[in-house]
Design a protein that fits this description.
By secondary structure, this protein is α/β, with parallel strands linked by helices. The chain has helices at about 1-5, 10-15, 20-25, 45-50, 80-85, 100-105, 120-130, 140-155, 195-200, 200-220, 240-250, 290-295; strands spanning about 35, 55-60, 65-70, 90, 110-115, 135-140, 160-165, 175-180, 225-235, 255-260, 270-275, 275, 285-290, 300-305. It contains 12 helices and 14 strands. It is globular, with a radius of gyration of 19 Å.
């Protein structure tokens, strides 16, 4: 199966970046289901009590509201419950809970979620803010606003405004904190979507990298001094991850890449790729391969504007 699915250029490329056998095995293993408790509507303990008769819950080490979840009969449809319908929990991949935690939103903050749909991170940020402050939840395609609006309403979010703009148009605004969960190739989420392997090509990666660089420059320009910008992707491509951060560092001298302290197993960031050498500051970013914690693959950088 694996020989049919994985293209030769993909195998060659990723064999240089990680233990390809472990990576391949993880990609072909079904993703663990996980949820995040929506504390705007219910406490963590109350939701656990409601679910534990039918589900086994295991706390996610890096997120107090997060749980790996498994139905006791082996069913996979964890969204088919009254509690989910009522918005008591959000079905969210465990690694994707990291960026809002690093953003550390406060009740008085003005926050931009630049690429917000379908709203998993927006709703998490709003929950951490206890529905106070203000979030601008933006996306660039009208069709993507529908799931975003539905999820905000279902979660009881009242501190968020939805906008329809290209991320690059925000350069004249000023925000306390910005989340840029950038559009990406999704190579970290192969175990959730095997079709990613069918569409994989390096020209697409290069095109995405250019767009991500434009977005991170705009986000940094729209950030107040001393503000926090969190950049994340579910891609494992250095061009979409470390290279984007390196691009920001090369263009601005008031950028600080903050260390990320989380209870999580991590891999070393990539500091050189395709004859390019990246800044040593990139050692402070977070690179997660799917085999590290049995999650999606993910990349996160926490950036301060000095």
């Amino acid at each position: 199966m694996s020989e049919i699915i994985f293209k030769e250029n993909f195998i060659e490329r990723y064999s240089k970046l990680t233990n390809f056998k472990e990576f391949k095995n993880s990609c072909l293993t079904p993703l663990r289901r996980s949820i995040r408790v929506n504390t705007l509507k219910i406490s963590i303990n109350n939701l656990k009590q409601r679910l534990e008769s039918n589900f086994t819950l295991q706390k996610i080490p890096w997120c107090d509201e997060g749980f790996f979840i498994e139905h006791k009969t082996g069913r996979r449809d964890i969204g088919n419950t009254l509690e989910h319908t009522l918005g008591y929990y959000y079905v969210q991949e465990a690694a994707s809970m990291i960026p809002p935690l690093l953003l550390n939103p406060q009740k008085e903050d003005l926050i931009l979620d630049m690429c917000a749909s379908p709203g998993s991170k927006t709703t998490q940020i709003a929950s951490l803010m206890e529905n106070q402050g203000l979030i601008i939840a933006n996306d660039y395609r009208g069709i993507r606003l529908k799931p975003l609006g539905i999820n905000l309403q279902k979660s009881g979010i009242t501190n968020t405004i939805i906008t329809l703009m290209r991320g690059q148009w925000f350069k004249n605004f000023q925000f306390d904190k910005i989340l840029l969960d950038a559009p990406c190739s999704g190579t970290g989420a192969i175990r959730k979507s095997l079709k990613t392997l069918l569409t994989y090509n390096t020209k697409m990666i290069t095109k995405l990298s250019k767009e991500q660089k434009q977005l991170i420059i705009t986000a940094f320009q729209a950030l107040k001094p001393k503000g926090t910008l969190v950049y994340s992707t579910c891609s494992l491509e250095p061009e979409e991850d470390e290279e984007v951060i390196d691009f920001l560092l090369k263009n601005y001298n008031n950028v600080s890449i903050e260390k990320i302290n989380l209870n999580i197993k991590r891999s070393e960031p990539i500091l050189s790729f395709n004859n390019k050498i990246y800044s040593e500051e990139i050692k402070n970013t977070l690179r997660l391969w799917p085999q590290d914690n049995n999650t999606e693959g993910f990349f996160v950088a926490k950036i301060k504007k000095l």
